[in-house]
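To: structure subgroup
Subject: Chain for Friday's discussion

All,

I'm putting the inputs and outputs inline so they're searchable in the archive.
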Amino acid sequence: MKQRKMPMRKCTGCGEMFEKKQLVRVVKAPDETDENGEVTKSGEISVDLTGKKPGRGAYVCKSPECLAAARKARRFEKAFSCKIPDDVYERLEQELKGE
C-alpha cells in the first residue's frame, strides 16, 4: 500500500516544521460582504480542532511555551492582519492543558 505524504506546517511560536496533525490550528473565518462588496462583518477568529473550518489558518505547537512565544511576538495578529481577542488565547491555553 502506498504511504500518503503528510502535509507540513510551521509553528508560529518556535518556527519549526511539523506534521499538520501535531499542531493546533487557529482560523480566521472569511469576511461577510453585502451585494456592493463592502465588508459587513469581519471574520471570526476561533480554535479549529478538526482542521476543516474554512478560512485562513495559523498553526502552533501543543506546548504552552510556543503559545506564549507566539502571543508575545504577536504572530497570530501578523498572520491574520487583525487584533486577536484575549478569549481566543485563553481557549488555546485550555485546549493545550487538556491534552
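Points worth raising on Friday:
The longest strand covers residues 24-28.
Residues 31 and 42 are 5 Å apart (CA to CA).

D.
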